[in-house]
Amino acid sequence: MIKVVVKFVVMMIVFAQILAPIAEAALGKAVYYDPPYTRSACYGTQRETMVVGVKNNLWQNGRACGRRYRVRCIGATYNFPGACTGRTVDVKVVDFCREPCNGDLNLSRDAFRVIANIDAGNIRVVYTP
């Protein structure tokens, strides 16, 4: 009986670890911007390339600076077959995407290219902290 209970507890812990990131995931839209990526609302000057600017709802008056997101394309916003590469990309918040911002996430072109075809331009994404 004790072995059964222990196995059950272990299984529950494993499932919780697997499902926790899914519960934190958010859906949104992503676009990209062209280099250079040196100007930054968070850091003034920065040299990283896997970066993102975020819309006001994620910006939180600058508290988003330095936050990291894992982003995955789940489809084109508009009719663009084969928009997604099937990969994920990890990006760091370095900027604020001022209105009109066409996406929740304004990825660097380098980051966008990892997850989607550049020609898609505007994609639906799932992102997690």
Note down, in words, how this protein is organized:
It contains three helices and eight strands; from the N terminus they run αββββαβββαβ. It is globular and about 60 Å long. Helix content is 26%, strand content 34%. With 129 residues, it is of the alpha+beta class. β2 and β3 form a beta hairpin. It has one domain (23-128): Barwin-like endoglucanases. A six-stranded mixed β-barrel has the order 1-7-4-6-5-8. A two-stranded antiparallel ribbon has the order 2-3. Residues 28-129 form the Expansin-like EG45 domain.
Low-confidence stretches: 14-22
Structural class: alpha+beta
How would you spell out the order of helices and strands?
Answer: HEEEEHEEEHE
Rg measurement, Å: 18 Å
CATH fold node name: Barwin-like endoglucanases
**How many beta strands in the DSSP annotation?**
8
How far is the N terminus from the C terminus? 39 Å
- CATH homologous superfamily caption: RlpA-like domain
- Classify the helix fraction into a percent range: 25-40%
Shape: globular
* Integer count of domains: 1
The fraction of residues in strands falls at 25-35%
**Biggest sheet features:** 6 strands, mixed, barrel
The CATH architecture designation is Beta Barrel
**For this structure, what is the CATH class?**
Mainly Beta
Give the strand order of the largest sheet, numbering strands 1, 2, ... along the chain.
1-7-4-6-5-8
Supply the number of helical segments: 3
**Arithmetic mean pLDDT:** 86
